[in-house]
Design brief:
Helix content is 31%, strand content 20%. The protein is of the alpha/beta class. It has 2 domains: 2-103, Ribosomal protein L30/S12 (60s Ribosomal Protein L30, Chain: A, 2-Layer Sandwich); 110-269, Alpha/beta knot (3-Layer(aba) Sandwich), CATH 3.40.1280. The chain has a 7-stranded parallel β-sheet with strand order 8-7-6-11-9-12-10, sandwiched between helices. Strands 1-4-3-5-2 form a 5-stranded mixed β-sheet. Helix 2 (41-49) packs parallel to helix 3 and helix 6 runs parallel beside helix 11. It is elongated and about 60 Å long. The chain starts with a strand and ends with a helix.
Length: 270
Amino acid sequence: MDLQHVTDADDPRLDDYRNLTDTALRRVQEPAGGLYIAESAKVIQRACDAGHRPRSVMTQQRWVAGIGAILGDRDVPVYLVPDEVAESVTGYAVHRGALASMHRPAPASVAQMLQDAGRARRPRIAVLEGLLDHTNVGACFRSAAAMGVDAVLVTPDCGDPLYRRSVRVSMGTVFQVPWTRIEDWPAGVQELKDAGFVVAGMTLGDGAIPLDDLVAEGHERLALVFGSEGHGLKPSTEELMDRRVTIPMTEGVDSLNVAASSAVAFYAVR
C-alpha cells in the first residue's frame, strides 16, 4: 500500500477532500474533475466491488488495515492524517474512518439502461424528477435496492446520486442499482413507453387511482415516477403519464416524504 503521512491540512495532496460540507457540494451539479467522494470503509468497498476506480484515500491510523484490505494490489495513494487534519480539510468531523476520491464511471445511455432492465422478469424502474435533497435521493436508492428495482433514472434537475451525502445515506447502494440521467425530460417519457413500460406518476392530484389498483392491473413492465419534495410532479410530466397513482392516507395525513413513498410503492409493485 502506498501509505503517505500527511500532517499539514494545506498539503495539495488533500485538495480532493476540501470543503465537503453539504452546502458546498450543492453549489454545483457535478464535482470538478469527474470525481465523487465515498465515505466509510463499507461504501468504499461497495464502490470498488462495482468496478469504480479510487484516485486516492484519506484515512486515520485506526482504519489503515481495513483500507489496505479493500484496495488490495491497487496502486492508489493512501494519505494517513491525524483526526484534526481530516476535520480541518473537510469542514466536518470525519468519524466514519476514511474518505476516498473516486473516478466517476462513464454514464450508460438511457436506451442501454432500459434494455438491460428489460431482461428482468417483470422489470421495475424508477424515475426521480427534480429531487433537491440529497438525503432523499440516497434513501430512494436504498429502498430501490432493497425492493429489487432494476434501474433508476434521474432527471437533469435531480440531485446527484454520487454526492457524498447521497452515497452515505444509500449505504453504497447507489453502486448496486444501475442508474443514469435521462436528459430529455419530460419528453423522455416516450422512450420508456416505446420500451414497453407503463409509466405511472405518483401524485396527490385529483383523479389518481390508489396504488392497490395499479398493482391489481398486473403490468409486466412498470416505471414509477416520483416528483420533487415541494411540488411533486410537474404538470407537463403528469400529462404524459399512462397512470396517475396515489397512496391513500388516513388520520388527516395528506402525504408522505418522497423517500417514504418510494419505499411503499417499490414494495407494492415488487
